[in-house]
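On to my pick:
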Amino acid sequence: MPKYTPAVKVARTRETGATVILHGEGFDDTRTFTEGYAAEHGLYLIHPYDDLAVIAGQGMVALEMLEDDPTIDALVIPVGGGGLIAGCAITVRGLKPDVEIIGVETTAFPSMYQTLRNEPVVCGVRTMGEGIAVKTPGRLAVDIVRRHVDDIVLVEEEAIEEAVLHLLEVEKTVVEGAGAVGLAAVNTFRDRFRGRRVGLVLSGGNIDLMALSAIIQSGLARSGRLVKLTVEMRDVPGGLAETTKCLADAGADVVRCIITGCIQVFRFRPSTSHSWCRPVDETMSKKSFRRLTP
């Protein structure tokens, strides 16, 4: 696995009895190392996506989804190396060929998107969807996707973040960034999916707790439920109490407060308080905080 694989994924894999080797900056570095390691030690390499048996096994996802809900008319699937969407596409075309199949990649790693358009593959360095951060899609997968998948769309990092937060807050489901790109695509291209019965493949829940915490904080700030204020006040008894009373009157709860104050040569500098506040009533909008402005 790449060196920066989420700790929870590494731990869960080791719990199965596997030996986990962390090597390389990203998946493609790891793949090159693994191929050499397998040859050196006489091991049989099971490719994670460019293998017909693996592709066939991943196609069972679409089979189960269509069995659970035969009325699905669109299937939205994360795309990394392409094995998952290739298997699902073969299944769908055999059982219900009218279902639209749409793959989703991140704008940072659009390798399948660019390959299908015969464009040079240009990828970024990092993405929240690290599970699909693949620079070289599978040869077998590309051929299947070209023949059976209707479209590949790209989503931004902010959309992935919002999708992870929505799944956690509304669906009570923990999904990693790579697994949440399907919902990110539906939210990004709402008109395309409005009024349809869409099946989303949530392909993983291996998300680092620190990353999840950052997503929650960012989502709260974006929705106006967490606000950072910087307040200058006189360094006198009751100054802080006066400030917190203003916050309370506005219906806000102080989550964190940092107070700084120092004496410089020949003059005083007013104390500065940094406060992180959240509304007690989460329906409260950002406009509520304008009353705190002097």
Observations:
- The chain has three domains: 1-45, 48-217, 225-292.
